[in-house]
Amino acid sequence: MSPLPAGGSALPAATSVTAADRRRALRSGLTSGRIQRLPGAFSPLVAALIQQIGFEGVYVSGAVLSADLCLPDIGLTTLTEVVDRGRQIAGVTDLPVLIDADTGFGEPMSAARTITALEDAGIAGCHLEDQVNPKRCGHLDGKAVVPTDEMVRRLRAAVAARRDDAFVICARTDAAGIEGIDAAIERAKAYADAGADLIFTEALATPADFEKFRAAVPTPLLANMTEFGKSELIDAGTLESIGYNAVIYPVTTLRLAMGAVEAGLREIDDTGTQSGLLDRMQTRSRLYELLQYERYSAFDSDIFSFTLTKDQ
Question: Which CATH class is domain 19-255?
């Protein structure tokens, strides 16, 4: 009987790295001096590709999950929906997964339950934000933030509920565009004092804004490089030189995919065929390579390689 393919997992697509190890990897990466790049994954298949290309982690965006459900990003998704998508994605990648937990789905006790649910799903960390509930997309106008002490209670509840000390709790503040950068800095310090491991300041506009925040806040920092928003798109090397510890590209893969899907559907509508689109498609062989078909075949052959005798 031939040995199973290397990898250590029961099935080829299942992660071979424990959730605890992935949480430790995220924490270690945040203090490594190298920026941790976390592209957004809107499906497990995208997460597999993110790992194969060589990124340091995977991000699951609340805005993307909302859009995938054909909903606006205004706090309509539920804890169950977010946890289920996170579990699907974390289950297929050896990389740590950071997930958007919005405002914690309710009061501080709800934020505490959110942490335990995400830990059980194999997630490496999440961010909680200081917007009022229901929240709005971070790069839209008309946002409102809760008082600092209310967000501190939210974070303290989350920290108290954490069972694995390696699980990363990130505090997001949307105050920069409402109360100003100085107020956002003071909030960030209070959130770090409450136990946040990582600070995410939403909608900073220029490199100078990012530099100002880095100079004032000693806690590890996360930058959001989303397209078509309020932030100038800064490359990862520059963010690293400023001193940022992580960067997310939350909606990039969804926008790429939906742009291609819309263009393709319009061409089929116009011409009646997809034949002119073939050179823009992922081939069947490339898809099968990403899905590890050969490893599944080897696994199947090893497990079921027996022959029935006449007596059986």
Answer: alpha beta
* Annotated catalytic residue, options 137, 174, 197, 240: 137
| Angle between helix 181-193 and 207-216 (nearest 10) | 40
For the stretch 6-15, pLDDT in tens is 444 456 667 8
Is 129 one of the catalytic residues? Answer: yes
For residue range 160-209, list pLDDT tens digits in order: 999 999 999 999 999 998 999 999 999 999 999 999 999 999 989 999 99
Domain boundaries, the chain: 19-255, 259-303
State the DSSP string of 72-113.
Answer: -SSS-S-HHHHHHHHHHHHTT-SS-EEEE-TT-SSSHHHHHH
Specify whether 224 is catalytic: yes
d(CA 132, CA 123): 25
Q: Answer yes or no: 191 catalytic.
A: no
The Cα 95–Cα 113 span in angstroms is 24
Residue 250: alpha-carbon gap to chain centroid? 7
Is 59 annotated in the active site?
Answer: yes
Question: Which position among 56, 73, 119, 197 bears the catalytic label?
Answer: 73
Tens of pLDDT along 32-69? 999 999 999 999 999 999 999 999 999 999 999 999 99
Active-site residue, 102 included: yes
- The predicted model scores a pTM of 0.91
